[in-house]
Amino acid sequence: MSAVFDAVIIGAGPAGMAAAITLADHDARVLVLDEQAGPGGQIYRGVEEMSLTMPELFAALGPDYAHGDELAARFRNCGAEYRARAMVWQVIPGEEAHEVWVSQGGRSSRVLARSVLVATGAMERPVPVPGWTLPGAMTAGAIQVLLKSAGVVAEDLVIAGAGPLVYLLAAQCLAAGARPMAVLDTTPRGNLTAALPLLPGALRGKGPGYLAKGIGLKLALRREGVPVFSFVTDIALKGTSEVTDIAFKSRGRPLWLSAGVVALHEGVIPAQQMTRALGCAHEWDDVQRCFRPRTDGFGNSSVEGVLVAGDGGGIGGARAAEHEGRIAAAEMLRRAGKLDDAARDRLAAPERRGLAQHLAIRPFLDRLYAPPAWVRAPADEVMICRCEEVTAGAIRAAASAGAQGPNQAKSFLRTGMGACQGRMCGPVVSEIMAAAHGISVEQAGYYRIRPPLKPITVGELAEAELD
Ligand SMILES: Cc1cc2nc3c(=O)[nH]c(=O)nc-3n(C[C@H](O)[C@H](O)[C@H](O)COP(=O)(O)OP(=O)(O)OC[C@H]3O[C@@H](n4cnc5c(N)ncnc54)[C@H](O)[C@@H]3O)c2cc1C
User: Which of 92, 361, 384, 413 is least enclosed by beta carbons within 10 angstroms?
Assistant: First the structure.
């Protein structure tokens, strides 16, 4: 049997990198696995490369992005073992050690860990509107990937949705020299009034800094003359073989714009595939309308020795993710016998204070950007499971025919059985089943997730190395 790592960390975003640095500082044997080419996660994607090869764009993305470069440098030098382009496709909990199965360069192998930290971050909420499967319809995150990894920005881009990332992306495009044609803000009017009482709380901790940044982004768009349409509903992407136009209503008035690329975004939700596959208990967040793994104050999930930190445990943002990573690291050091309970608590205490500062604004943001009802109730003809080509109407018909929840919908219709393993359709299928049966989404539940979490070939599986 190969040596057992004190900790294996899945994900080299802010949470994973911060955890690794803390663990390595205390002489723990730690391995970090990430499927990307370099450290950084979603927010700091491609940060090392960009700072070297595209210094002007790097500077234009501002100090928040530059912070990622410093963090990545500290991570590189911390002494943790790091494997890039290493995709984890299964974790099997064990009594003495957990097995982590990872695919790298077309070969799969197993590593063993006393503690596993799931730091796999968030994903964008699916936005199933008519035409969202046409080429040219993308997510805001996908546009960012092109920007951060290749410095490429579409010229005929319309950004439609709600949440901080909508305005951030628009400003990042401007910084890269490409002016978005328009921003369609889908924040419902009712969200503004519901969020207002939470504003005083958002003025605590680091809240004012975040608010100032958001206002600054909006002012930059105004200065550059980017049209912003408010209270947008009824979005439909038009085109035969690709997106050519977008139809929508703003303040109830029907409008139409030409656009070759549309970025859809309705906030981010925890990426739950891995924690689901591990059998971790999850709970439903009714404001953010997403499931998240249940964790204690140290990131321990309901599965012994499996911890969660960062956006994968609940959306808090990149700086909060760092603090959560360091808190989870303190607990993993205790589990590895390197700290006693009191030393763990001392190490975690300043991180808890930092975390609270960054989370102060969350109740306000969560309420302001709670997804509009229409995102959860797509029209019958809209495709929901893109892999198996199943419409919302077919899912509703399956519910009428007796399917009680997402797993029965899967048996009836093969929803969630394609290459994405239900990542894209899962959240919407749960919402549709809940609405169809008049029950809560928590009662409707979510897909049971099976390995492999992401596709690998049968040949690779057959040749997987045990040690
Ligand atoms: C598409 C997208 C874009 C975003 N852009 C911004 C932004 O510009 N600014 C901002 O403030 N916030 C942004 N956010 C929110 C931001 O990602 C988080 O607040 C922050 O990055 C959370 O850090 P994290 O460490 O929890 O996860 P992440 O930074 O998401 O890191 C998770 C890491 O896990 C890896 N991973 C996932 N699954 C596996 C697997 N099976 N095997 C191996 N590795 C795996 C990923 O490759 C990734 O590197 C974005 C979120 C998303 C989903």
Answer: 92
For the stretch 180-196, pLDDT in tens is 999 999 999 999 999 99
Q: Provide CB contacts within 8 A for 445, sequence distance 6+.
A: 405, 406, 407, 430
| CB of residue 9 inside a 6 A radius of ligand 1 | no
> Where are the alpha helices (H) located in 6-90, listed in sequence order?
14-25, 47-53, 55-60, 62-76
Nearest atom (ligand 1) to Cα of 309: 26
Query: Does ligand 1 lie within 6 Å of residue 14's CB atom?
Result: yes
HEC profile of 264-327: EEECEEECCHHHHHCCCCEEEECCCCEEEECCCCCCECCCCCEEECHHHHCCCCHHHHHHHHHH
For 383-440, how does the pLDDT look when each residue is reduced to its tens digit (9 = 90+)?
999 999 999 999 999 999 999 999 999 999 999 888 888 888 999 999 999 999 999 9
Is-contact 173 153, C-beta < 8 A? yes
For the CA of 33, the nearest atom of ligand 1 = 43
Q: Residue 192 carries which side chain, given as an amino acid letter?
A: L
| pLDDT at 2 (0 to 100) | 66
CB of 91 closer than 6 angstroms to any ligand 1 atom: no
Q: Which CATH number fits domain 4-123+269-339: 3.30.70.100, 3.50.50.60, 3.30.70.1060, 3.40.630.30?
A: 3.50.50.60
Instruction: Give residue limits of the domains in the chain.
Output: 4-123+269-339, 126-266, 377-444
Tell me the C-alpha distance between 388 and 385, whole Å.
Answer: 6
Q: Which atom of ligand 1 is nearest to the CA of 313?
A: 26
**Percent of residues, the chain, with pLDDT higher than 90:** 83
Residue owning tokens 């700091």: 44
Any atom of ligand 1 within 6 Å of the Cβ of 313: no
270, 312 contact by CB (below 8 A): yes
Q: What is the CATH number of domain 126-266?
A: 3.50.50.60
Secondary structure (DSSP) of 354-419 = HHHHHHTTHHHHHHHTPPPHHHHS--TTSEEETTTTEEHHHHHHHHHTT--SHHHHHHHH-TT-ST
The finding on whether 46 has its CB within 6 A of some atom of ligand 1 is: no
What element of type H or E holds 189?
helix 189-195
Which residue type does 422 have? G
**Does residue 119's CB lie within 6 angstroms of at least one atom of ligand 1?**
yes
Distance 302 CA to ligand 1 centre (A): 23
CA distance 348 to 340: 12
pLDDT greater than 60 at residue 212: yes
Contact 33 CB / ligand 1 (< 6 Å) = yes
pTM of the model as a whole: 0.95
355 vs 86: CA distance, rounded Å: 29
